[in-house]
Specification:
Chain A is mostly helical. Chain A contains four helices and no strands. Classes of the chains: A mainly alpha, B alpha/beta.
Chain lengths: 111, 224
């Protein structure tokens, strides 16, 4: 085993352990848990069998395995940026509600 | 209440102009609502001492947030027409009576004071381009073309106000309002107005980056 493989496996192992503990504490949704689990499992497979990514890439019509890894990472990152944006909107709307409520109540109590 | 008009003025850090804007608005009606959108200066204080009903936001929400509070506050009142006005002093309250006329006559539910319908538009060139772009974007996303989608001078009937539901917190509400007019089949009329551009009012409001941000907010709003 190459040193880089050992290093990456330890890191990903820790990330997956944390993923499970987060699911247990309900800090992440089941969907997000599954997406991340799939992502990191795929990463592990590719670390152990680097040729596998090449096979997959050829099936999908992407040149090299390394390219496939980059493409799928990008898609994942965009997905999370978007879902973040949506969540932020929801938080904004909650804050807005509170601020408006306080504002109207404050005025009412002045009368 | 003089002639059943409520003037709503969203204001954020406008201590330099708010007094004049209120005094000008007083010539039209006694019902003046200022939404102090978390200003860090004396905007709220000054507005209050000049007889406006001040609704204070604890933190700054943005134009959309302030307008919605103003609308919510005016919906608690009796029958009326709501006119929104910018706090930076670019609007003249003297046009308000012209603005509300179509609503009073039952010709329109919403009236927009358009800076671009004027024969000799005195808008700085770069602003002109922004506004045309904004109109185009508004049309593409909301399906209704108006000559000045970003105008802050608007009049709403009570019926229109009850129908209009806005999501946006910031500048994107301006376009959203146009979308709501279309969605609710409200009748719209545009009236040419003059806007007074000062260095001060130009430093406020939209600029290039805000425009880009606004565009993305509309995009995400449409996607969610």
């Amino acid at each position: 085993m190459l040193l880089i493989q050992i290093f990456l496996v330890i890191i990903i192992g820790l990330i997956i352990v944390r993923l499970f503990s987060r699911l247990k504490k309900e800090e992440i949704s089941v969907l997000n848990f599954l997406i991340w689990l799939f992502f990191w499992s795929a990463a592990l497979i590719i670390i152990f069998f680097p040729d596998f990514s090449n096979v997959l890439a050829r099936i999908l019509g992407v040149g090299r395995g390394a390219d496939l890894v980059i493409y799928s990472s990008l898609i994942l990152i965009f997905y999370f940026i978007f879902s973040h944006e949506v969540r932020m909107r929801k938080t904004d709307q909650k804050i807005e509600k509170i601020v408006r409520y306080l504002s109207l109540e404050e005025k009412k109590s002045q009368k | 209440m003089k002639n059943n008009i409520v003037i709503v003025i969203p204001a954020y850090n406008e201590e330099k102009t708010i007094r004049e804007v209120i005094e000008d608005a007083k010539k039209v009606t006694d019902e003046i609502i200022v939404v102090d959108d978390g200003s860090r200066d004396r905007t709220g204080e000054i507005a209050k001492s000049h007889g406006a009903q001040v609704y204070r936001h604890l933190i700054n929400l943005g134009l959309g947030g302030a307008l919605k509070t103003g609308f919510a506050a005016s919906l608690k009142k009796d029958d009326f027409i709501v006119v929104t006005l910018d706090a930076d002093g670019q609007h003249e309250a003297s046009v308000v009576s012209k603005l509300v006329e179509p609503i009073k006559n039952g010709e329109a539910d919403v009236v927009i004071g358009s800076r671009l319908l004027n024969e000799n538009v005195k808008m700085p060139f770069i602003r002109l381009i922004f506004n045309h772009l904004a109109n185009l974007i508004t049309f593409l996303f909301y399906g209704l073309f108006v000559s000045d989608s970003q105008s802050g001078l608007r009049a709403f009937s009570r019926y229109a106000l009850e129908k209009i539901k806005l999501k946006g917190l910031k500048m994107e509400v301006s376009s959203e309002i146009i979308g709501e007019i279309k969605r609710n089949n409200l009748s719209l009329k545009e009236i040419p107005i003059r806007a007074i551009y000062t260095d001060y009012s130009l430093s406020k409001g939209q600029n290039f980056w805000l425009g880009i941000k606004t565009f993305f907010r509309i995009l995400i709003d449409k996607m969610t």
